Amino acid sequence: MKILVTGGAGYIGSHLCVALAEAGFQPVVLDDFSNSRPAVIDRLAAIIGAPTPVAIGDISDAAFLDRVFAEHEFAAVMHLAGVKSVAESCRLPLLYYQNNIGGTLSLCAAMQRAGIRRLLFSSSATVYGAAARSPVREDAPLSAANPYGRSKLMIERLLADLVAAEAAHLPVWRVAALRYFNPVGAHPSGLLGEDPLGTPNNLVPYIADVALGRRPHLNVYGNTYATRDGTGIRDYIHVMDLAEGHVAALRYLLRANDGGYFVWNLGTGRGSTVLEVVAAFVRSSGRSVPCVMAPMRPGDVAESCAHVGRAQAELGWRARRDLDEMMADVWRWRSANADGMR
Ligand code: NAD
Ligand code: UD1
Predict the structure, then answer these.
(1) Whether 186 contacts 332, CB under 8 Å
(2) For the chain, which domains are there?
(3) How far does the centroid of ligand 1 lie from the alpha carbon of residue 35, in Å?
(4) I need a labelling partner for 89 at 20 to 30 A (CA). Which of 71, 111, 150, 168 fits?
């Protein structure tokens, strides 16, 4: 069964291709390599043991999408392509709305033309906004504080509208929004991992840079939060657990033909503080990670953790890998690929 993975060459998409292949599906990557490298395709082949077909192009290009859908018969589309930096989205809102919202509209229209109605979308815990109480359930109120978050929120709403509008017709849309918490980690082979360009914004890639000696220290953004050690708590999830969560959600969508719009949190349900993440990384790598306390980062919240009951009950899936395994896999990847796949 062929599954189209938009953004399949990216950090999460590449791990998802491995999980799909392990589960017996044939992933087909669609990517324009705007934030990834073609070398990832060779590494996927090395892990999977077979080549992964690739369609190189932009999801906003309708003629390109029509060609891809004419060439392959897909059982579903997993839509990960998009831009994802909160800070960049505040500088370049049009890029975020065009690529994320415009790209999703273009993809859905092409799916409609091709008669494919099963879609999984990469959403984010950012749609819960700053006021959410942890552990946050899927039915919590939604809000967004920046263009990136608003693009995710608007896409969720447009997908729900699409499902509702088509509910009276057959074949109907069956769509899932997967709200990721904080994906970290890497494939245990050390061949795939997160490969950010420039200075990382996110905690774990930054810690790895410090451990590699590329940056002098980690700035810990705030140590006076109302948490057990004063630093921010997040629900870090191993990217392979996240990928397996997608496969469980895909199976759920494939199981029936009736329409529906589904939302699942993908997290572990357990939070770690910044200092706990640093300690796990030091344990796993044997390197030192000097820390300097710094002011709180604007827009950050004290705690963000998933309520995972719905995913467990409906998908029969739960995250299995702990923080030490996440950090060990990050270190194996980064220490063997200090310059990523460049
Ligand atoms: P990534 O940048 O590594 O992967 C995205 C991929 O999409 C890249 O390979 C890029 O080249 C491709 N792409 C971007 N725009 C495209 C376009 N218009 N047409 C074709 N390909 C395009 O990012 P990631 O971390 O793997 O994130 C994947 C998805 O998950 C994104 O939608 C992101 O918003 C969402 N997400 C990520 C996180 C996270 O922490 N990484 C958290 C929540 C949600
Ligand atoms: C951020 C984004 C979120 C996005 C996610 C994945 C913000 C406000 N939120 O989430 O929308 O979905 O990345 O791309 O940008 N920290 C440090 N020092 C650092 C970096 C981070 O102390 O150098 C702390 C942060 O204050 C936070 C934790 O580490 O407590 C995790 O930060 P990060 O990895 O950036 O993720 P989020 O802020 O949760």
Answers:
(1) yes
(2) 2-184+236-266 (3.40.50.720), 203-235+269-336 (3.90.25.10)
(3) 8
(4) 111
